[in-house]
Design brief:
Blueprint (H helix, E strand, L loop, with lengths): L8 H51 L4 H4 L3 E3 L20 H19 L4 E6 L4 E2 L2 E2 L11 E6 L19 E7 L5
Antiparallel strand pairs: 1-2, 2-5, 3-4, 5-6
Helix pairs in contact: 1-3
Protein name: Type IV pilus modification protein PilV
Keywords: Membrane, Transmembrane, Transmembrane helix
Organism: Pseudoduganella chitinolytica
């Protein structure tokens, strides 16, 4: 009998194939984890912006009409104009405070979210077909809603879009305690 002194070419190729499949699987898992982390960070930033704005509206309820004018798209207005008063060196009235609050929301959306958007409106029907929507019904007495979103992507890399071809909000926060 002859002693076997090494590996055959087929054994080496099978081992390389198993190694390659393992590396591809590990790389795919890493990419998925990175995408999930990015989406989580964007969702967290959007929630913080929406909650902050909701609290500001709740603290300044008399200016609800000013807040309801917010419909900011960072792609259309890349650098939001600063309000006339920043309320730093002198006192400011409630309308100036509302303008400062709106500017701060726009600044956060512009810096934290890729091509972000924010909208404050009255909306009794935030959801359509299981998804948040940007449009508002403006029903008198409907809750004030802060909607914040960004242009996200599906797991396959295609842009997320709604039925009209636009992107969907990531977060909608109802503002409680503000009367019409």
């Amino acid at each position: 009998m002859r002693a076997v002194a090494g590996f055959t070419l087929i054994e080496v190729l099978v081992a390389l194939l198993v190694l390659a499949v393992g590396l591809i699987g590990g790389t795919a898992m890493q990419l998925h984890a990175m995408r999930a982390r990015q989406e989580s960070a964007l969702l967290s930033a959007a929630v913080q912006a929406a909650v902050s704005m909701a609290e500001r509206i709740r603290a300044n309820p008399g200016q609800a009409g000013i807040y309801l004018d917010v419909d900011y798209d960072a792609t259309a207005e890349p650098t939001p104009a600063a309000p006339p008063s920043l309320c730093l060196d002198s006192g400011c009235d409630r309308a100036a405070l509302a303008a400062l609050d709106i500017h701060e929301l726009k600044r956060v959306v512009r810096t934290a979210l890729p091509a972000g958007r924010a909208r404050v409106c009255r909306d009794a029907h935030m959801w359509h077909a299981g998804r948040l929507r940007w449009s508002c019904d403006a029903t008198p007495g409907a809750p004030i809603v802060v909607k914040v979103g960004w242009r996200g992507k599906n797991p396959d890399g295609t842009p997320q879009s709604d039925d009209a071809g636009g992107f969907v909000p990531g977060v909608a926060m109802a503002v409680a305690g503000v009367r019409p």
